Amino acid sequence: MNRILRTIPILLFVIFLSYPIVTYLIFSERFLLFGIPFFIYFFYRTSSFTLGLIFGYIRYRKENKVEWYKELLKITSGHSGGNLPEHLIVIPVYKEDFSIISRNIDSIVNQKYSIKNIHLSVTIEEQDSYENIKQNLLNKYEKIFDSRLLITQHILKEGEVKGAASNRTFGAKSYVQKLLQNGQSLDKFLITSPDADTVFTENYFARVSLAWIKDNYSKNKFYQTAMYKFGNNLWEVPILIRALSNGLSLSVLSSSAIDGRNRFTFSCFSLAISTLVDAKYWDTTIAIDDTPLHWRIFDYTQGNWSCCVIYEPINLDAINSSDYLLTHIKQYHQYYRWGWGIIAFPIALKAINKNNTNLLNKFYKLWKLIEIFIVSKVFPVVTSIYLLLISYSNLNSVMLDLISVITNLNFFIVLPVIYIKFQMLRESSNIKYIGLIGSILIELPLGVICLLTYGIFPYVYAALGFALGAEHENKIKWSMKKSVIGSEVRVMGTNSELAINN
Fold first, then answer.
1. CA torsion, points 396, 401, 406, 407, in degrees to nearest 10?
2. Residue 37 within a domain
3. How far is CA 343 from CA 31, 262, 300, 346, in A?
């Protein structure tokens, strides 16, 4: 059965990608009749993307003006942090050096949140520099976190595969064991496991805490930002990489506003520690972590698992290196690694089938699964193939007029996207207006190129490897972040005083 389930994604890719050519060869000029659903879906995606971006950006601007820590203290009636949720932050380190890790931790220390309620576990994959990194971390942060700091070296056990899943599991398990040994309850603990390059805004954990309290300390929700920015180094990377990064930011913001409840866990999210423990952490037998964990918990909770969207941003590093060509190759490897998220497809199908929700909800979950993994990747290519076939055939019909209207409408619908993108870019750069406008005008056609290259090839290739039984841990390559020493680092929203004074 697993063998059959593994082949479904690549079969769907082949069916969708070959559909326009097959219908053209079989039905000749009537092939347009079979293409109408794709153009309607294209219109739907464009409309929902723009509406989601408008609603999401308005919500972001509104929430960004709120002092979340003050709002939090109003409902917890505490000034010393005694009534606040506890946060365990697990940072998995691959080969990032101290400058990257400390930039992350500095943004945690500078939170508008009681430092006494923040616990930190840094788990470093087996490497020669472990002792040196550990000592540097202790020198800088031991007095700040006191006994709430744990630094461990992750050495792979038998049956584990190298990657973020096993690293995160080791760091989380190690600290949970410490909490239990000290007789502490896990009921008011949230866990967040950001990538090493993550930089939090100063209100992040206060915002998450407030959302969790209002949900009555829910064990069936995870809390995830709609605002993934790449402000750490956005203007240092090649323009194609910048176009990809900005496109990801806009896509996540839009989808979060339109259907945030059904988002999958991605990159940086918070959930109740007790839920993670009960669901047996991340799966250490696979290297991919985010999406398999989502469906693992979905299965454990019998489908009672959803996302609560917040709009407090985080900043990440866009892919970069000292070599121009190598930077684009590394970007491909990152998308290929994300493509291997397809490994969760059979897990998701089984979980959807087993959950106790009604049939309509099961179908919707199945559609979201297929849409995210397959349809969203192929529809730009399929639409382009149809446009090429229409141009080649020199058709003249009512259906062609309808497609022309849909295509032109899409152009006007996306115009607000340019304005929102401009506003978001202004927040991460001091570049003058003309430079920002020029950048956007160049990025727009590059965005189309990205959809037709990075947006499809690594995902199809990963699905093919999955179907053929390739060992994913031997195929994917992990990206290591560059050192930030010697360059300006933007840590958005940091205080001048350490949070230890809270």
1. 40
2. no
3. 34, 19, 18, 7
- The CATH number of whichever domain residue 272 belongs to comes to 3.90.550.10
pTM for this one?
0.90
pLDDT tens by residue, 267-282:
899 999 999 999 999 9
Please check whether residue 94 is in contact with residue 480, taking contact to mean a CB–CB distance below 8 angstroms.
yes
In a domain, 206, yes or no: yes
Q: How confident is the model at residue 491 (pLDDT cuts 50, 70, 90)?
A: very low
Give yes or no for residue 389 having a pLDDT over 90: no
202 in a structural domain? yes
Burial (Cβ within 10 Å: 0-12, 13-18, ≥19) of residue 12: middle
Residue 95 has pLDDT above 90, yes or no: no
Please tell me the distance from the alpha carbon of residue 244 to that of residue 240, in angstroms, as a whole number: 6
128, 229 contact by CB (below 8 A) = no
Q: Please state the domain count of the chain.
A: 1
Q: Residue 266: count other Cβ atoms within 10 Å of its Cβ.
A: 16
Per-position b or e across 140-159, b if 16+ CB within 10 A of its CB:
ebeebbeebbbbbbbeeeee
The three-class DSSP label of residue 315 is: strand
Average pLDDT over residues 455-465: 95
Question: What domain range includes position 338?
Answer: 68-251+263-357+480-501
- Does residue 422 form part of some domain? no
